[in-house]
């Protein structure tokens, strides 16, 4: 029988039971959403990108972003910085959260981040990627990995050099998002560089880019031979994608879609778990974008979206969700 495309992955000393990950998503992969994704089968979950500068300055907003959800058996903290000094100064604090791995962001296209030499600006300075990996690896055995793009723009596709330098410096795995910095999140992701890195690198290589359905994941695993995949936009409002993808990979059959009741119960449980660490007002604000995603395309959901703006307390949010469900069934 052919080997299943759903399979364990070793990243340095870390052994993951499967190869379906929740990508880092600024503004989305907060603790509550990562917990829900883990519950629905994500084998590894990534925090939003965390500023090394903010960490060593003890920024009160940033530090809690690194806390693990109880449902996350394994999670990655993703860091961003343009300077070796900030990486060095933040490391001890980052390790105190006991992440399963530390990932370095080399792909963020946001101008403010790039100006500081971080994110995809690092694609212009592969030697700095190597220095950052080195300094982040000092004094511990938590695996350090990098997440890169294919290059800065179509005229500088240097993913191979960036990945090789990162691995020489000690990176235990590489993820590549098949777009350049100039592409942002538009156009079509190119999976060819992923295939090339899979062949070239002695460490596991993971793929990102245009994974919106279980079948997209199957195709990426099959066509590129990559060790694992990361769902990003495809998981927003759809943490079920992990279980459904595993089902497809293991049985060859599409999983039946989740009922609206399950969707809304999951959204509600995500909201309730966020109340354990956020104020009611903040949690109610945070859940809005997720609820919009959970209910996207469902008849009547535009009214819910309008009403959500006024939901500021637990009882208001719960009522909105329950009424929406009752009216939709
Ligand atoms: C809203 C948003 C936030 C993101 N935040 C991060 C981030 O913090 N760190 C990171 O490495 N990539 C980030 N990404 C990139 C994703 O992890 C992923 O590589 C990219 O969306 C491509 O996958 P997709 O086409 O399947 O969405 C972000 C993408 C989006 C859309």
Description:
The protein is an alpha/beta fold and 329 residues long. It has 2 domains: 9-251, TIM Barrel (Alpha-Beta Barrel); 260-328, Non-ribosomal Peptide Synthetase Peptidyl Carrier Protein, Chain A (Orthogonal Bundle). It is built from 13 helices and 11 strands. It has helices at residues 31-39, 52-56, 84-95, 111-115, 126-136, 159-168, 192-200, 214-224, 241-251, 260-274, 280-294, 301-308, 314-328; strands at residues 9-11, 14-16, 20-22, 44-46, 50-51, 75-80, 101-106, 144-151, 174-180, 205-208, 228-231. The strands form 2 sheets. It has an 8-stranded parallel beta barrel with strand order 3-4-6-7-8-9-10-11, surrounded by 6 helices. Strands 1-2 form a two-stranded antiparallel ribbon. Helix 8 (214-224) packs across helix 9 (241-251). The longest helix has 15 residues, at 260-274. The mean pLDDT is 96. Bound molecules: flavin mononucleotide (FMN). Flavin mononucleotide is lined by residues 23-28, 48-49, 78, 105, 107-108, 147, 177, 185, 189, 208-211, 232-234.
